[in-house]
Amino acid sequence: MTTSSPAAAPATAALTHADGALLRNGRPHRLLAGSLHYFRVHPGHWADRLRRLAALGLNTVDTYVPWNFHERTEGDIRFDGPRDLAGFVRLAQEEGLDVVVRPGPYICAEWDNGGLPAWLTGTPGMRLRASHGPFLEAVDRWFDELIPRIADLQAGRGGPVVAVQIENEYGSYGDDHAYVRHVRDALVARGVRELLYTADGPTPLMQDGGALPGELAAATFGSRPAQAAELLRSRRPGEPFFCAEFWNGWFDHWGEKHHVRPAPGAAETVGDILDEGGSVSLYMAHGGTNFGLWAGANHDGDRIQPTVTSYDSDAPIAENGALTPKFFALREKLTALDGAGTPRPLPADPPLLTSRELPVARHASLLGALRATARPVHAPLPLSFEELSLASGLVLYEATPLLPPGHHELTVTGLHDRAQVFVDDAPVAVLDRESASFTVPGTGARVRLALLVENQGRINYGPLLGQGKGILGGVRVERRLVHGWTMRPLPLDRWTSRDVARAAAAAPSDGRAGFATAVLSVTEPADAWVALPGFGKGFLWVNDTLLGRYWEIGPQTTLYLPGPLLGPGDNTLTVLELERLGDRVTLHDRPELGPPEEYVETFD
Questions:
Q1: Nearest of 17, 12, 45 to residue 29 by alpha carbon
Q2: Distance between CA atoms of 52 and 285, rounded to whole angstroms?
Q3: Deepest in the core among 398, 432, 451, 582, taking most CB within 10 A?
Q4: Of 71, 167, 169, 577, which residue is the catalytic one?
Q5: Where is the Glycoside hydrolase 35 catalytic domain positioned along the sequence (predicted)?
Q6: For the domain that residue 471 is a member of, what is the CATH number?
Q7: How many domains is the chain built from?
Q8: H or E stretch including 135?
């Protein structure tokens, strides 16, 4: 589809602005929104969570659209089941909510690869989020499928969509204004007629990079709203003040603490935004969960910071839908506004399963199962995940180098992200990006060298966006490269319950690491949290669904289990443990997200 120059939004757009005021159908309006991502919530809970968002006192829900969630394989674009964007938007309309859609193509969101497909970012020579022909062509093909669906749901066509965001915080990344204009034009050419806006941090540098003349410029921040309002009004004196993301909580990385933001401070800042006459969107209103392997990663220099499975984000509506003290503190501010109307009834907390312990049956050993499960690929040097057409999961790399007598240093170059090293099937080291060498004794014979490499989440923010995974350089004995590799790609998030069962039965147990199962019997399915005491690091499936990653370093020690994943009777929990098997799985009626640490906002 060829884009055309944008036309001015027609007067029939639901949201307009004049003289610094936001209008809805010509009348003064406050956009009181909250982020709730359909892709982080089981579809069986969509209606419930939207109802809770409305009870918070909000009139709008906003959601990103992750491209890689809908087009996991190039050309296979899906909008069914958990990807039913239109179904989610219609449910929001039934709850009386307006909808803001943020289609990217880049979304950040602590989501794997910032929402960009690995098949795209792994294309040799690809340049992301720029006026690079192949990237723009891919975006246009994706928008050909996505944007008409959003356009059909606009308020002007009887739907609830009242605004669409142009790209996402682009000013924190680059200054290619031609690219941002291309995204804007692509939205308009495919039928978007409602309010368009950009969202960037509240600094001149960020606003300069991301804002577009003629389109509403919004800001994203967690504090100092008066300063943000002053900046925007000094640059856009005729526009209303809109905080497109108010960070009332924060996300967590593995190995760090659980970030929190006290309810009184969050509510006070929302009050300050409203006192400035502003509109606001709470990020997050309900965080949800990074099910499967969809959690992304940040980086500190070259050190990767993988995001945990929970996306609770200390939000006012907790991961299981419970109403938190922050919910009530914010609700008091929001419902006190003039014209807010009668507050919605408060829904009861969702039902929970009772706590219990489930004994574990140990099955296939780690290496035996993985060797028997995956089809081998041979190459002279290690191939990356991208070269193996693998977006996420594990790759088992194996070779048989000849080691002369003595001790030899082996070095892995370009390790992304973590490798467990085995020599003749015995574990000898765990490597990461910062520590990718180890010493092995040699006898003059060949050894069986195995490296089990884990993609811990693709970087979702900053200049390293789109980095590859796996062994990107090579493996050396001293200065000599090791050749003759066999690789076994393991797309764990594509496995069905049949695949998982086949892997679990593929080899005898060695009692150390590998597959284990537990049986959860329920009469009436309900929510719970699962913990794995004594286990080290790995992945947990519930029936057909990969629930997510677990890791003993925390902060979270429980995984949220939505009731809709269970059926009456026996349900199978399957663990793939990489390091150390425990002897039981425990069920809990509350989460354990780790020791808290108050989030402090910075701009860098």
A1: 17
A2: 9
A3: 451
A4: 169
A5: 22-335
A6: 2.60.120.260
A7: 3
A8: helix 133-151
